[in-house]
Design goal:
This protein has 361 residues and is α+β, with helices and mostly antiparallel strands. It has 9 helices and 13 strands. Strands 1, 2, 3, 4, 5, 6, 7, 8 and 9 form a 9-stranded mixed sheet that branches. Strands 10-11-13-12 form a 4-stranded mixed sheet, covered by helices on one side. Bound molecules: adenosine-5'-diphosphate and magnesium ion (MG). Adenosine-5'-diphosphate binds next to helix 2 and helix 3. It is found in: Nucleus.
């Protein structure tokens, strides 16, 4: 008996794009992370997030950055359109979060996107709606062209009905309050790291914001505001430059007085990568290193709070990682991780001595 050989067909481009989008945008918090990074890349000093139903109904971000030019609005949501690199060589010296031009495209494949934006030299703002990477009419019968409207300098992006066209994904995200917590987590981490930028995050119907930082806050102020004064009052600053390894570190780590059941780690590399530490990074060298550093200091099964920001020569970092990757690799990883561990250990030992001294008096 012969079996029928199935014929191979080329997938429709919209299907391809929707599948690709699903790999980058898994849930509202992912989408928001991309939008926040875009706002930061645009030089914003104020970023306001508004959320409805855990971001599934509405995810809106308003910034005061450079805006998008009217003439770029037609292609801004297409895949691989970016203002951040021009050639492959630029990848070696990239200083922005984004560079692949995939985020807005992906979001527009799985949500209804509207962008209202104004550059400083434009007399008015422009608003446009997008679907599947392309401009669409904002109302039936209208042309798809961006429409002039009133607005401040900067950009507002709304993503509505996320995954309206991906029923399986939609079904998997049935708990809006869980999604909202993840959103809060993302905003919290970016707010702490970007202490010169004010952030707010609010549910649409709520009177008060759940996160509200101001531009004058220091990193410690923001840690106190967002993680509480118990953590903030036990932090040690570890700041060191390793010229031979071409990297700098700045960390706020808790001393031996502080320990909790769950490790909180905020890790940033060249401002660029956000690690979501609560899952999937069990094997990471840095996490193991942290555990080793604290093993003799803290009671068994308890953990510190760590904020760690690394600035590594961009040429030594593998930037070509997929946007969803939580891990990033760099040259001389072992040596680098060891150097960080030593610096932390040294600082903790110093702090410990003074504590022993203090209790002896
Ligand atoms: P990437 O960030 O990788 O360039 P995105 O799809 O995230 O790709 O964004 C595409 C382009 O849209 C960016 O390169 C930038 O020029 C523009 N853009 C997106 N968001 C903003 C924003 N909030 N303010 C100004 N420009 C933006
Ligand atoms: Mg981007």
């Amino acid at each position: 008996m012969t079996t029928a050989v199935p014929s191979i067909r080329r997938l429709d481009q919209t299907v391809v794009n929707r599948i690709a989008a699903g790999e980058i945008i898994h849930r509202p918090a992912n989408a928001l992370k991309e939008l926040i990074e875009n706002s930061l890349d645009a030089g914003s000093t104020n970023i306001q997030v508004l959320v409805k139903d855990g971001g599934l109904k509405l995810l809106q971000i308003q910034d005061n950055g450079c805006g998008i030019r009217r003439e770029d609005m037609a292609i801004v949501c297409e895949r691989f359109t970016t203002s951040k690199i021009k050639s492959f060589d630029d990848l070696g010296s990239i200083a922005t979060y984004g560079f692949r031009g995939e985020a807005l495209a992906s979001i527009s494949h799985v949500a209804h996107v509207t962008i209202t934006t104004k550059t400083e030299d434009s007399k008015c703002a422009f608003r446009a709606s997008y679907s599947d990477g392309k401009l669409i009419p904002q109302k039936p019968g209208m042309s798809a062209d961006p429409k002039p409207t009133a607005g401040n300098n900067g950009t507002q992006i709304t993503a509505e009905d996320l995954f309206y066209n991906v029923p399986s994904r939609r079904k998997a995200l049935k708990n809006p309050s869980d999604e909202y917590n993840r959103i809060i987590d993302v905003v919290t981490r970016y707010a702490i790291h970007n202490s010169g930028v004010s952030f707010s995050c609010k549910k649409q119907a709520a009177n008060a914001a759940d996160i509200n930082t101001s531009t004058n806050n220091s990193i410690i102020d923001n840690i106190r505001l967002l993680y509480g004064s118990t953590v903030a009052s036990e932090l040690l600053l570890v700041e060191k430059e390793f010229a031979d390894l071409e990297f700098k570190m700045k960390a706020y780590i808790t001393n031996a007085n502080y320990h909790v059941k769950k490790l909180t780690m905020l890790l940033f590399i060249n401002r660029k990568y956000l690690y979501l530490w609560y899952r999937a990074v069990e094997s990471s060298m840095l996490k193991k290193m942290i555990e080793n550093v604290y093993i003799t200091l803290l009671p068994k099964g308890s953990h510190p709070f760590i904020y760690l920001s690394l600035e590594i020569n961009p040429q030594n970092v593998d930037v070509n990682v997929h946007p969803t990757k939580r891990e990033v690799h760099f040259l001389n990883e072992d040596t680098l991780v060891e150097a960080i561990a030593d610096a932390m250990q040294e600082r903790l030992a110093g702090a410990n001595d003074s504590r022993t001294f203090y209790t002896q008096i």
